[in-house]
Amino acid sequence: MSEITQEQVTHLASLARIALTPEEIASMTLELGAIVDAVAIVTQVATADVPATSHPIPLSNVYRDDVVGETLTAEAALAGAPDSDGSRFRVTAILGEEQ
């Protein structure tokens, strides 16, 4: 069993700026201890002769040829815009006055 203490959990919570109740600290201490124990077990099994995997089933991407098709002209794209300057959409500022 790993030695995760309530003091360590409290310290980590303060670093993450998470307010935890004493009950939550006790619960997280047990849960984090179980996680550390599980990782230790996997570390014992994962030796150099075991290849690393990112997915249990081999995957392959299916690509299609990149074919140029019809595209919108700037005029067609701006035709339905509420406001434009002729070549771009015009929108109101969203950031406020802090700039």
Helix-strand layout with pairing:
Blueprint lengths: L5 H10 L6 H24 L28 H5 L21
Helix pairs in contact: 1-2
Characterization of this structure:
This protein is mainly α. It has a domain at 6-45: Histone, subunit A (Orthogonal Bundle), CATH 1.10.20. It has helices at residues 6-15, 22-45, 74-78. 1% of the residues are buried. The protein contains three helices and no strands. 39% of the residues lie in helices and 0% in strands. α1 (6-15) crosses α2.
How would you summarize what this structure contains?
The protein has 99 residues and is mostly helical. It has helices spanning 6-15, 22-45, 74-78. The protein has a domain at 6-45: Histone, subunit A (Orthogonal Bundle).
User: What is the β-strand count?
Assistant: 0
Q: What is the residue-mean pLDDT, rounded to a whole number?
A: 87
**Which percent range fits the helix content?**
25-40%
Runs in which pLDDT lies below 50 for 5 or more consecutive residues are none
Write down the CATH class of one domain. Mainly Alpha
What class, by secondary structure content?
mainly alpha
Search tags:
mainly alpha
